[in-house]
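Example record

One chain of 310 residues, shown exactly as stored in the release files.
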Amino acid sequence: MKILITGGAGYIGSILTPTLLAKGYEVTVLDNFMFRQNSLADCCQYEGFQVARGDCRDETVIKELLPDADIIIPLAALVGAPLCNKDKIATQTTNSDAVQMICRLARPEQKILMPITNSGYGIGESGKFCTEDSPLRPISLYGTTKVEAEKAVLERKNSITFRLATVFGMAPRMRVDLLVNDFVYRALHDRAVVIFEGHFKRNYIHIRDVANVFLHGIENFESMKGKPYNVGLDDANLSKLELCAEIQKHLPKFVYLEAPIGEDPDKRDYIVSNARILSTGFKPEWSLNRGIQELIKGYTILHNSLYSNV
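Predicted structure tokens for this chain:
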């Protein structure tokens, strides 16, 4: 089975691509390598691996790569509010327009599995879990463009979307700016963090479980297609203060304080139910605490901010 991944050299792609290759899939990656990363260098050992340097918004490039694919995984995106606000046009054309183009060009029998984001829920109701039937009220450009992309993908029926919780964990194309990754880095190297609006809650998922849920979706496509799925840890619907308390268990010298004034520009605040994906037989393998331990080891190696999106 042949898989086309756009943005396959990014944070998620740098884990997903070798995972698929190790399972025997043939994988073609399209990426513009905007961060000058070499995250797929180890994949070159696989005969079934092909790579193209190009832009996912270029219809000529997509038309050349698309015909051979049985499965399409559009990972290419500008991710996170700071990067999206830095280039709003590129965000719209990459995160939404390029995905809609793929949906228009793909044959009906070609399968699409796409990561979205549960940030589309925006600000949830206090004490009430967001399910896949909850209203989508994105409060950022990133969330808005991903919700638009999901709508286009699900309208074609032969598709699955994964509404990912905030991802954490080590990867060849590392991102230190994601919340868990950022707090563990600060806890290890700065030993302190100042928190704004520490009661805001989010859900979390390890990057290797993100790769695993794509494998699960491919293997169970017929029974899962046509629906969105929340993908997160049921025991990790945590506020920022609760997250810091978990990190402090591993790094006792870590001090965290909530600022009495000021605000977080990221206003997302919600708790999420992952019951639908769990009902399909998927089970996450990585707990939050296991991921924190992994990050502490990783940050003994990495000691700079070159691996952030902004």
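Notes: The mean pLDDT is 95.
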